[in-house]
Amino acid sequence: MALTIHPFFESTSGSYSFVVANPESGTCAVIDAALGINEGEQGLNTDLAELIVDWVKAHGFVVRWILETHVHADRPSAAGYLKSRFLCAQTAIGANTPDVSGYDVLLSEGDKICLDHACGRVMETPGHTPGCVSYQFDDAVFIGDTLFMPDSGTARCDFPGGNPQVLYASIQRLLSLPGETRLYVCHDYGKGLGGKHRRNRFVTTVAEERSQNIHVGKRACMEEFVRLRTARDATLSAPRWSAVSIPANLACMSPPAINGLLRSEGHGHH
Ligand SMILES: [Fe+2]
């Protein structure tokens, strides 16, 4: 049995969403589906969610799971929207997410995510947020915001409940997987932290991260990582849409409710 993986890119936030499918049983899981936010008149857009809906329908798949790796701060999730389109699917997020509501299932370490006979498992990988989880299907792991591409380092740890020591430990767990393990990231902006432009990427390997990640590669120790991460976080500002995205994603909101938040934030029409 081979699962297939299909990436989708949301360009307003540089987010990757994925569909993991079991072609044998015709079932799939959607991971980290993003809504877009357009500056200006249009506000929220469901472009990427519609692409996923069209793709799933064109292939005749049944969506079993709508999975989140964590509460994204930079863009609203399409989980609530996709649930309204795929009523039999279960929405799920990490059980250690503070103040979470509205999801069908809360997941903990070792929980199974089954696409009929093909099952993945949940790994708790906190640090960026307390509730971050990764999803492992065979030799592919969807790692949310933990590691990014080697030239882009790691996820910030300065959101509420974030902790660089804890993220370091989570990353070491990921890096202890076999070298050929594929790691699918949540974000890529088409350039490294050095600013050099390159093609967008969504998948790397444990071996590549171990040898080349600019924050944790070459066996960087925890002390070194924490110093680097803390210094960098001090220079970062809040994500543009965090005041809308965080409450929307904590409650698995659908677009009508999210549009209400956008309007009350005064972002909807200018
Ligand atoms: Fe994040």
Describe the structure.
The N and C termini lie far apart (50 Å). The strands form 3 sheets. This protein has a 6-stranded mixed β-sheet with strand order 1-2-3-6-7-8, covered by helices on one side. Strands 9-10-11-12-13-14 form a 6-stranded mixed β-sheet. It contains 7 helices and 14 strands. The chain has 270 residues and is an alpha/beta fold. Helix content is 26%, strand content 24%. 46% of the residues are buried. It has a single domain, classed as Metallo-beta-lactamase, Chain A. Helix 3 packs across helix 5. Strand 11 and strand 12 form a beta hairpin. The site of fe (ii) ion has 5 residues, from loops.
Q: Radius of gyration over alpha carbons?
A: 18 Å
Indicate the percent of residues in helices: 25-40%
Quickly give the CATH architecture. 4-Layer Sandwich
**Count of runs of 4 or more consecutive helical residues:** 7
Beta percentage is 15-25%
Shape: globular
Cα distance spanning the termini: 50 Å
Helix and strand composition category? alpha/beta
- Work out the number of β strands: 14
Largest sheet: 6 strands, mixed
Overall tally of domains: 1
Bound ligands, named by name, code or SMILES:
fe (ii) ion
| Poorly predicted ranges | none
